[in-house]
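in:
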């Protein structure tokens, strides 16, 4: 940022003087492994300090701690944490659980009380905490199904709640494939600015880079045989798809071309089976895990956790210390970091304008 001449407090030549961007404090709710925080930190740099984080999944907390060495402990269930126990903050990051609104789920919305977690109503804990502290920005991410759930009424409740709290909410569905990662992942993003901040000029970015393809995120050869399917498993997938096709359904495994983009990665086996590859580069055919039958000779494999991390835009330095089963779940639940960074840059610009920045 370039300071104008005579950048002292007060007016300069009839204009509002430049005031330096203060160091902002953020909180990371439903933090997962920290993808939303990472994108904001990439955009804000040293101007942003995380002062609180909460996440209920113990495995996600372990990955989070490996990558963010904070002086505070990661908190657990946000519904059991009082607003007063959260330190003051300027930006709230909240990727509240999406299963209640997902097209792939039961879409119970605010009525979703999965295993007593009340995950459909967790947005209101975001509202409770932000109502107490009145941050400058509330930033949320969720599945695109949130926008039209219950004929749009669910999203109107969320927008109306933000309005009652005194925020101007901007929302847009963005696709990760337009932000430098080869993954067809549509999500809705909400950036709500406190009403004393002029956010009329805020616009979501449309795209930064739509050129990336699967070949850009592949592991170098040889890929471990643990990721290649057994003959038995591959035959099972083919039979499963044939049964569905006979019924007129489109469900089944999919093999992606290297010059294609991946389907959205999600938790569970479906996220891997919809993104299989034919990788006939030299590799061992000796199994390193228990499999039924021999490894297939066609080179069909699932993507590796490292490839999934690249599909979500995580840097190579990001640590994924746990077993694959946990890593796949964590990355399937994560945000796409480059999308968050691109939006965060626009958020930062709006806050700088609020302070008279140039």
């Amino acid at each position: 940022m370039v300071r104008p001449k005579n950048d002292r407090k007060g007016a300069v030549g009839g204009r509002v003087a430049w005031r330096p961007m203060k160091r902002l404090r953020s909180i990371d709710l439903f933090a997962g492994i920290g993808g939303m925080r990472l994108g904001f930190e990439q955009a804000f740099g040293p101007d942003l300090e995380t002062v609180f984080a909460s996440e209920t999944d113990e495995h996600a907390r372990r990955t989070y701690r490996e990558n963010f060495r904070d002086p505070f402990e990661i908190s657990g269930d946000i519904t059991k944490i009082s607003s007063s126990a959260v330190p003051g903050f300027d930006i709230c990051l909240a990727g509240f659980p999406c299963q209640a609104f997902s097209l792939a789920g039961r879409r119970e919305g605010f009525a979703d009380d999965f295993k007593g977690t009340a995950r459909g109503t967790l947005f209101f804990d975001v509202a409770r905490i932000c109502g107490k502290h009145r941050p400058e920005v509330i930033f949320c991410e969720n599945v695109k199904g949130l926008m039209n759930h219950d004929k749009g009424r669910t999203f109107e409740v969320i927008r109306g709640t933000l309005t009652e709290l005194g925020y101007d909410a901007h929302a847009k569905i963005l696709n990760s494939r337009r932000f430098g990662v080869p993954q067809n992942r549509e999500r809705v993003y909400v950036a709500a600015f406190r009403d004393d901040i002029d956010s009329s000029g805020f616009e979501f970015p449309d795209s930064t880079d739509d050129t990336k393809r699967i070949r850009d995120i592949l592991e170098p050869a040889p890929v471990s045989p643990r990721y290649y399917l057994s003959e038995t498993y591959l035959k099972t997938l083919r039979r499963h798809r044939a049964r569905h096709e006979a019924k007129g359904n489109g469900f089944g495994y999919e093999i992606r071309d290297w010059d294609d983009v991946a389907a959205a990665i999600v938790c569970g086996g479906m996220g891997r089976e919809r993104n299989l590859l034919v990788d006939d580069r030299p590799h061992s055919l000796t199994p390193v895990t228990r499999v039924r039958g021999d490894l297939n000779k066609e080179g069909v494999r699932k993507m590796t956790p490292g490839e999934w991390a690249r599909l979500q835009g995580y840097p190579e330095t990001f640590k994924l210390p746990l077993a694959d089963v946990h890593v796949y779940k964590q990355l399937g639940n994560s945000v796409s970091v480059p999308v968050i960074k691109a939006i965060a840059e626009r958020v930062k610009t709006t806050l700088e304008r609020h302070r008279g920045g140039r």
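note: Residues 220-303 form one domain.
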